[in-house]
Structure formats: structure tokens, C-alpha cells
Amino acid sequence: MASKVKAVGGSAIGCCGNFVSGFRDFVLRGNVVDLAVAVVVGGAFKELINAFVAAFITPLFGMIGSSDATANLTFTANGSVFPYGLFINAVISFIIICFIVYVAIVLPLMGLMSRLFPIRTCPECMQEDIPVTATRCKYCCSVMEPIMKKSKSGSTMEPVTTAPPPAVI
Questions:
Q1: Alpha-carbon distance 99 to 37, whole Å?
Q2: How many domains does the chain have?
Q3: Cα dist. 62→50, 59, 155 in Å?
Q4: pLDDT averaged over the chain?
Q5: CATH number at residue 31
């Protein structure tokens, strides 16, 4: 009986060892660690915005609307209290967070992407994401003259220079 317990115990340790090493490999992947950092920083950013709304924005609405702060606004129905002011604060926080993310992250990234990967519109199908180096549209296959070409080093883009048409005499 003791030999059976040892055998079962040994295989259980081997099974858990594989599980632990697999879990360790999963956690130590770069994207999981990056995601964990993003969640922690995002939570801290949310708290910062909520504190800003509670300290500065809510009192402004209280000055305009009434003497009560927005967060304290409630209504009662059948003895139940509905704190709708908390919802108003959450909406304000959400709008401020979206605005800051757009201004601080989206706009600079769009500018960087347009410099690194310039695009143009296809004159035939009007698709707007055709690379400027393309000679054919990836949607309608129409022939397009490239506007830009990669430099010899391959790191920058330069305008395509075309020879003038031959003079007709």
C-alpha cells in the first residue's frame, strides 16, 4: 500500500511541476508582463482623474447648479435612495479620461504613423489607406504612379522624380 502512495505522490509532483513551469513561462512572456504594468498604471491614472473630478470639476457644477456638490445629488423613491450624482461624476471622469487619452496618445501616434507610413487615396475606388510607394491599389488593382519611394538607405522616403515628357516638334 505504501508503494502505491509513493507512486501516486511522485506522479502528482511531476504533474504539478509541469503545471508550475508552464505557468511560470506564461507569466514571464513579455506581453503578459506589459499587460500587467498597463493595468496597474491605468488603475492609478483612473484614481488620479477621479480625484481631479472630485476636487475641481464637481465643485464647479455645484456652484452653477446648487450649493450641493454633484456627488451628493440623490433622489428617493419608495424609501430607496438613488445617488445619481455619483453617476454624473463617473460620466465626467470617463469623458476626461477619453479626452486625455486622445490628446496624449492617439493624436501623437497618428502623427507618427503618418510620417512613418504615409498613405494616399486611390483615385478609382477612393480607398484612403494606399501606401504612397504603391504602384497598384490593393483594393481595385488600378495602376497608380508612386508619389514617394524609399531612399537608398531604406530608412526615409523621398519624392519620385519623373523625367519630363519629350518635346514634340
A1: 22
A2: 2
A3: 16, 5, 55
A4: 78
A5: 1.10.1200.120
Nearest to 134 by CA among 152, 149, 151, 114: 149
Which residue type does 19 have?
Answer: F
Q: How many CB atoms neighbour CB 141 within 10 A?
A: 11
* Structural domain span for residue 122: 117-149
pTM of the predicted model, to two decimals?
A: 0.52
Model pLDDT for residues 91-105, shown as the tens digit of each residue: 888 888 888 889 888
Query: What region, left, alpha or beta, does residue 126 occupy, with left being phi > 0 and alpha being psi -120 to 50 degrees?
Result: left
Burial class (CB in 10 A: 0-12, 13-18, 19+), 64: exposed
Residues 97 and 20 in one domain: yes
